[in-house]
Every structure is written in structure tokens, then in C-alpha cells.
Specification:
5-stranded parallel β-sheet; Rossmann fold; elongated; alpha/beta; 2 domains
């Protein structure tokens, strides 16, 4: 079922807990008859059986929870925190519910299945979870997500320029970077970069499990700079809501094969939006220098904090900022007062520069090296500097100690 790059055959170890006899029979029939799979199974309520689960050396852990049991949820949360994604945890639930799915995503479970589940579907869920955990163990992408607080705030320009800066890396050393446009109705990332969008949603929507590295390569667009772009042709007359498995499967695959992933998220909230935001390392809310724009941003921050308490800390970017010392209008002090500690940075208003870059399909730095927009974004995404410390005086022989370093 699962394959590993090892000259000697290695058994797959599946650890499972089952609440009812039907699910127990399914798990035994699916995994217990395969000589290549070692099955460790317990039966009973999850909260009472979780202590018996030995996940050491496991390829995947399957748990069967009661959504109405607070004890089961507390035990599941403790288990996922303890395992930290290795091995991945798959949860079986009796029925699908959006709020339940959101809670499971917040706990960072690898996947969930709805009972009664077909044996092949359970096998595929385990295979995807194991492959994702293996890829994440090898390289873990850094996810930068851009979400607009209002329409027309210049989010796509900032997302593209951030991706270009990440592509260059530190010291001019390129890192693999992918820009993902999730606005399937009005997406314009490829238009801004003069590229042809190649993501065929009609092909992958019926069978998300078909999406693999080979198919992903076919659906990638590549900019002359080396930036890879995932985008579908825009369909302004169609309001399509894709199953969240299509989007999460796509993002899991992209994250497994790139160092950096920049995501352009539409303003409309879909069933998969929560999972995208939760999976981000940094979440930027983009607004503009207007009173309504600041109000929208502050409200969106509060909504995200309420919905995704364990998600990334929202960072607000105020785009098209103009410093005003005299006369009417907003000043920086007004912005700081409205947004408080959520204000990440302000981006200077430079309409001529951004218009030329968009018309030519090139990064801002190619139009004007060292421009003020790129400079502001570079500071925003730069890793925090380590504080400088004064050199320690030399220790005498008797004062020497062992230093523990991570």
C-alpha cells in the first residue's frame, strides 16, 4: 500500500481505535488481511482507549470519535499535539458537518472520513496522509497567505511582488517559490504576469486523488523569472464553490514541493477558506488608506480571531499609504490607533510604478530597482534579526561549563 525508498521491505504499521463493531470489521478487513500491514487495533470509546494507542513507529493512526463527546475532543486535541503530525492522524466521524470539519482542521488532523466509508476510500486517505507526512518531514514550505479586507486594495500586486522577493532568497540565492491564485472567479495573477493559466479544475474536481506531482507539473505556469504559478482561467459569470478537498489536496501537494508558497485568497469566504488560513505560517490582511478600509480590516481581524483561535496571527498591510503632515485626511497616527498591534506595515502609494509593471508583466524591481514598494515588503517578510549581545569575558578553567545548543 505504502512504498518507501528502502532496499529492504518495510511493513506499514496502522494503529486504529474503533467505537463500534461495524467500523472494527471494516478496519480488520481492510488492513488485517494484508501481510504487508501490521495492524494494532483497540475497541471502545476514544477517550478511554487513547492511552492504549501505541503510535511509535506507526505509519498512520486512525481514530473513531464521538462528535458529541467533549472528552473525545479533549483527548483528540491532546493526541494531535503530542504527535505533532508524525504519524498523521485520520479521524472517522458518523456524519459531515462544516463546524466539525473546522474543529478537526484546527487540531491539524491529517484527514477525516465519514462513516460508513468504503475500504478503498479509507486506504486512499491513509496513503495521502502518509505521503504528505513524509514530504513534510523532508521539506516544510513556508506559507504566506494574502486576504483582502475590501475590494480593489491592490492585493494581487503585493502577493506577486512578495513571491518575487521570496524567489530571490537571501543573498541572491533563488529558492523554489509558487504563487497560488485561489480566486477562481476573478483571479488575475496570470494576467498581471502575462501568463496563460493552466489549472484545469474540471479535470481534478471529480477525482482530487488523481492530482499528483506529474499532473501538477502539467498545470503549472512559469514566469521568465522562474516563479511558478498555479491559476485557473477566470470565470466571472460563474460562482463556483469547490469541495474543500480539491483545494486542500492542491495546496498540500504544492507545499510538499516548494520552499515558499504565496496564496492569493478571494474576499468571498468559502468552505475551504478556514483550512487555508489555518495552514498558513503568515496571514496578511490587505486594506487601503481609507476610513472604510480600516474598519473592514479591524472587523476582519476580529472575525478571524474568533473563528480560528489557534490559527496564525493576522497582520494588516495598509496599501497605497501617503504621509500627510498637514491638511485633511488620515495620518499614520490614525492608522496606528485604528489597527493597534495588528498593523504590520504600510506600503507607499506608487501608481505609476505598479501600472508599468502590470502592463509589462514583470516584477516591480525590473521597472525600478530598489523601489519603495519592494523595500517595504522585503522588510515585512525578512526573518527577525537576532539581538546583538556584548561579547562574554573569557572564562577561567574552573568556570568553564557545558553549553547546550539546539
Amino acid at each position: 500500500m505504502f512504498t518507501r525508498a528502502n532496499p529492504e521491505p518495510v511493513k506499514t504499521r496502522v494503529v486504529a481505535q474503533c467505537r463500534d463493531a461495524d467500523f472494527e470489521r471494516l478496519v480488520r478487513a481492510t488492513f488485517g488481511m494484508d501481510g504487508k500491514v501490521e495492524l494494532s487495533l483497540t475497541v471502545g470509546a476514544f477517550a478511554s482507549e487513547v492511552r492504549k494507542l501505541d503510535a511509535s513507529g506507526a505509519t498512520v493512526v486512525i481514530v473513531d470519535i464521538d462528535p458529541g463527546s467533549e472528552a473525545d475532543f479533549a483527548a483528540l486535541n491532546a493526541l494531535t499535539q503530542r504527535l505533532g503530525g508524525m504519524p498523521p492522524v485520520i479521524v472517522a466521524i458518523p456524519l459531515f458537518d462544516v463546524s466539525l470539519a473546522r474543529q478537526l482542521l484546527q487540531m491539524r488532523v491529517a484527514d477525516f472520513v465519514v462513516k460508513p466509508v468504503q475500504p478503498l476510500d479509507l486506504v486512499r486517505a491513509c496513503a495521502r496522509a502518509a505521503q504528505g507526512a513524509t514530504a513534510a518531514g523532508a521539506t516544510e514550505a513556508t506559507i504566506y497567505t494574502f486576504l483582502p479586507a475590501a475590494g480593489g486594495v491592490g492585493l494581487t500586486t503585493l502577493a506577486i511582488e512578495t513571491a518575487m522577493l521570496l524567489l530571490k532568497g537571501d543573498g541572491g540565492k533563488n529558492t523554489s517559490t509558487c504563487l497560488v491564485d485561489l480566486d477562481f472567479q476573478h483571479g488575475s495573477c496570470c494576467d498581471y504576469l502575462d501568463l496563460e493559466p493552466r489549472l484545469d479544475l474540471d479535470e481534478i474536481e471529480p477525482r482530487p486523488d488523481r492530482l499528483d506531482r506529474q499532473l501538477l507539473e502539467v498545470m503549472l505556469s512559469e514566469h521568465p523569472s522562474g516563479l511558478k504559478v498555479i491559476a485557473a482561467p477566470s470565470r466571472p459569470a460563474e460562482m463556483r464553490s469547490f469541495d474543500f478537498e480539491v483545494v486542500t489536496r492542491l495546496l498540500d501537494l504544492v507545499a510538499a514541493h516548494f520552499d515558499n508558497v504565496v496564496i492569493d485568497v478571494p474576499r468571498t469566504w468559502f468552505a475551504w477558506t478556514d483550512s487555508v488560513l489555518i495552514g498558513s505560517n503568515r496571514l496578511f490582511l490587505v486594506t487601503e488608506m481609507t476610513v472604510p478600509g480600516l474598519k473592514h480590516a479591524r472587523h476582519l481581524v476580529n472575525v478571524i480571531r474568533e473563528r480560528l483561535a489557534d490559527g496564525p496571527h493576522p497582520e494588516v498591510i495598509v496599501n497605497r499609504f501617503e504621509q500627510r503632515l498637514f491638511g485633511p485626511g488620515l495620518r499614520r497616527a490614525d492608522i496606528e490607533q485604528a489597527l493597534g498591534e495588528t498593523l504590520a506595515c504600510t506600503i507607499p502609494n506608487n501608481f505609476r510604478l505598479t501600472s508599468e509593471a502590470i502592463d509589462r508583466g514583470v516584477p516591480l524591481d525590473e521597472v525600478k530597482a530598489g523601489n519603495n514598494i519592494s523595500g517595504a515588503l522585503a522588510k515585512l517578510i525578512a526573518p527577525p534579526k537576532k539581538p546583538k549581545t556584548a561579547p562574554m569575558p573569557a572564562l577561567t578553567q574552573g568556570e568553564r561549563k557545558l553549553a547546550l545548543v539546539r
